[in-house]
User: Fold these one by one.
Assistant:
Number 1:
Amino acid sequence: MFYILLVPGLVVLAYVFRQVVVIGRSCKSNTKLHGKTVIVTGSNTGIGKTTAIELAKRGARVILACRSKQRGEAALQDVKRESGSNQVVFMQLDLASLKSVRSFAENFLKTEPRLDILINNAGLYMMGRTEDGFGMMFGVNHLGHFLLTNLLLDRLKECGPSRVVNVSSTAHNWGRVDFDCLNTHRTLRKGTSMLDSFGIYGDSKLCNVLFTHELAKRLKGTKVTCYSLHPGGIKTELQRNADATVQMILSNLGKFFFKTPLQGSQTTLHCALQEGIEHLSGRYFSNCTARSVYAKARDDAASKKLWEISERFCGI
Ligand SMILES: NC(=O)c1ccc[n+]([C@@H]2O[C@H](COP(=O)([O-])OP(=O)(O)OC[C@H]3O[C@@H](n4cnc5c(N)ncnc54)[C@H](OP(=O)(O)O)[C@@H]3O)[C@@H](O)[C@H]2O)c1
């Protein structure tokens, strides 16, 4: 009898675990976005693409800010088709090039009168250097978005209430910011092993949380608010540059433990749309809920220092 009940019991437990722990909550906001403009970086695939579709369905004019013309234009057709909206535009943005960030911002500010929501979603897990000589994950995951946000801040202020949403990760928990290494080597850690790359990804995601913490302070008294978030573990292309072993482990674990991109976009949508969270500006969210973070992720001195070194690196 015990064994007859064991199998269905385990199946039910697994189902409940997947629904509650893996999939989690959905964005409950009914906010419509007609007349509003949103930028989503890295929106040709993964969470960014689904986020763009969901925002276009709500009536927003959505700018797909992607590095590849070919992938960006293919995504443009998909987003238009799946959202049923024609208010979707592709604009080229390579976050690994500060020149490209500047030219994107210039083009955007010249051609688009509004900016209501900026979603800094793009990210990668890849070693190497950016065009400007910064560590790739520091350069793309943090510095490119730092410059982009600063160049667009006046437009966000003019259009307030407006929001900046920074897609971070729970990986920020194992991150640290080594300012000496940044100063000397323009990267977050010097090593090149698999463990180092894991560490650097976490460091870059800690930068996202610290950037949001400092940005919220600097935005006090304006109508712009900002949030960082962990989207969950999602089946996307993020691990495409990882070691073959890591790819194999993740793709097997992913079958049960990862969300779909639509499920993975829910916390981003919550931070972008949910009414009444303005008093939580600067906070970190996961599963559509504001969370406590370790002291290192709300460290006033470190977030100010990161802001200042980032300004210096970007020449602003
Ligand atoms: N998937 C997860 O489990 C997970 C968990 C926690 C946090 N996140 C975060 O979620 C965000 C979205 O990741 P994802 O999982 O959707 O990954 P993804 O499928 O790999 O999508 C990443 C997007 O970022 C773009 N990107 C990469 N480098 C860029 C650059 N230099 N300039 C402009 N865009 C660039 C990619 O463009 P290309 O296609 O041209 O490379 C792609 O559109 C990232 O910030 C990631 O760190 C993901």
Number 2:
Amino acid sequence: MEAEVSREAVHALPKAELHVHLETSLRLRRLAEELHAPSLTEPYLVSDPKRHFGYDRLRRLRYLGRAGKVPDSLYTHRNVARITYELLREAAEDHVRYVEVRVGGRRGFALLGIRGMLEAMAEGRARAEEEFGIRCGFLVTLVRERGPEHALEVAEIAASCAECGVVGLDLAGDEENFPPALFARACEVAREAGLGITVHAGEFSGPASVWTAIYQLGATRIGHGFRAVEDPELVAYLRDHRITLEICPTSNVRLGLVQNWKDHPVRALFDAGVRVTLNSDDPLLLRTNLTSEMYLAARELGFTLDELRTMVRYAAEGAFDPRAATEALAVAAG
Ligand SMILES: [Zn+2]
């Protein structure tokens, strides 16, 4: 009988994370409250989870978490650098050695420009890498609802921002109404520039969305993707083609997509040989971090410490800067 995995052991484990959103507004809101208005109550106020479901619930969670609380004036180079630094400091405290941070917020892009946002993030990253030895790459998120022309524009800028630390492109948003084919050209531009492609799929929609993300967009990683479990052929394909799934169990449970941890298909997918990784998705909004995700996976789904290490290795190998990920983890181990 395997010894029970403790939270301390999981915390101490050098880790890698592939799916975390900067979520500028919520981090900026926290910053605003720290700096200017500590009296704002319940900073992480969220909607009644029983009233909304799936993507609609996600939108409401995000909206209510920040509505009207973050003035445009907070979107400065300095503040964006600072929240990036804080995200990385919190990750480093959690013994995350390599992390890919994604950014796609409409207001930040509009107010600072896409390149301006990335340059500010790069400054926060440089400071955190130097202080904590953590390594970090950026992913630029295309939001489906903003349409294919906007996506192409964002992809072109992302493709020209390698010096800011961009390593990949992410597609997120309304899976049902904005099918992947609309974004094929944007993904092609990114791929040609050497960026990795990850697509939010198999979360609100079923296995078909994962198939199309792979076939039409050339995704080598899938954000969430847990609904692949509904299609045995897809499970075999993911395993054989070494596609990495960025699984975020707390997010799925909080959005009502999976009833509870014990029902989460991450165990079945791992046992089937699929390269699953654990991730926090949106740690401030969901009040989680990578240690929590891994500890709950151990406690609720029986993952051993060795299996958790295997998932960290999958994350390093699936990283869009695998060399940085492997080096950072090797330094931590050595
Ligand atoms: Zn996500």
